[in-house]
Amino acid sequence: MTSGASDTDGAARIVRDVVCGFCGLGCDDLEVAVTGRAIAPRRACPEAARLLARTDAPPPSARIAGTPASLEDAAAAAARHLAASRSAVFSGLGADLEGLRRLYDIAMVAGASLDHAASAGLFANLERLARRGWIAATLAEVRNRCDVLVVLGADPASAFAHFFERAMPSAPVPADADAAPLFVPHAGGRSVVIVGGPLSDTSRAQLTRHDVVEITVPEDRIATAAAALSAALAGRATEALAGLPLGVAEALALLAGRLKAARYGVLTWNAATLPPEDAAAVAGAAAEAVDILNVTTRAAVFPLGGRDNVTGAHQLALWRFGYPLRTVVGAGTARHVPDLYATATALADADLLLHASAFRPDPPPGFDRGPVIALAHPGTAFAREPEVFIPVGTPGVDHAGHVFRMDSVICLPLQGLRPAELPSVAAAARAILAALGRAA
Question: Which SUPFAM superfamilies does this UniProt record tie to the protein (predicted)?
């Protein structure tokens, strides 16, 4: 069966090998039943199933101040608000690459700062990456080469349900030899150490053939534990790192020995689920540990993230402006000040908010200093009716598109699953650009 191939089961059309664009892991083995416009997930993690499910109900129309309107009239109203703005903020940015291109076009015409709803974890990681760099693995390298995986923080499965299945499969796939781990002695028997936790029962079941060690550390001590592990690898004293539970320092010393003996160690963490004040420190300690290990063996970091194509939004900003997100653009210039142009801070001085969220019904952040333009999921519940609401389709559900996987090296093609009745973010943005007198 090729990717996205389908057959029928009674009245339903069964679509297999569906690519998922929601969490950033890029699973490509989902299965759905499509009946008319209704979608019933048959094989998907709980989060993907929730976001893929659709009824056959007709979509809402665009609205101007709560009154139904055509797409053209809503786009014209949005263009008038943008033309009058002097300090616009674009938030959310949950869109496929084509949608992001057109949103960035509007920002360049109207002048606006750009930030993604899931960029907090990204910027915690960039603090280390931008200053000193790091050695990072791809998902394929983790799957095929890693013999010791260290998780810093909570169970990754809480945000990436199939992470362990994809990164550390417990059994080879006999019918597809290329899918099995290629450079480890056998599929089972690798080591997974979680510093934080606890692991869920589901994760323990997925890792049943591996050697699993859980070093329980409270959430507010993960950064200290990561620093202690790095110190142990460097041969520095760890006694000075106070605050760790009894026995944890000794367990980390043993883990340091295990990593030194490994052929390919990997340290992973999800910065978005760590305490905000500690996330950058965890990323820095993990990268330092990898630097130390690579003197005598091989190791890499694998930061988790990528929700709602934040990786694509970041990459596209670099291509277009030479800066990452949290940059203001317009009048032929770009200025990157991450603290100033984070959404929450930028809104304090803004006079307009444009919010885009096509993957999930996340409402715009609170804002009462000016008009709100929402290019949003049709199921969005607004605390305040936007001045302009254009319901948009979801990439990978209502239309095709492309998103980046969390490791930044793979751009995934998404397919439409049902007849599109809503415009994509790109189509809605093109209509606004046309109303602004600019062709996309």
Answer: Formate dehydrogenase/DMSO reductase, domains 1-3
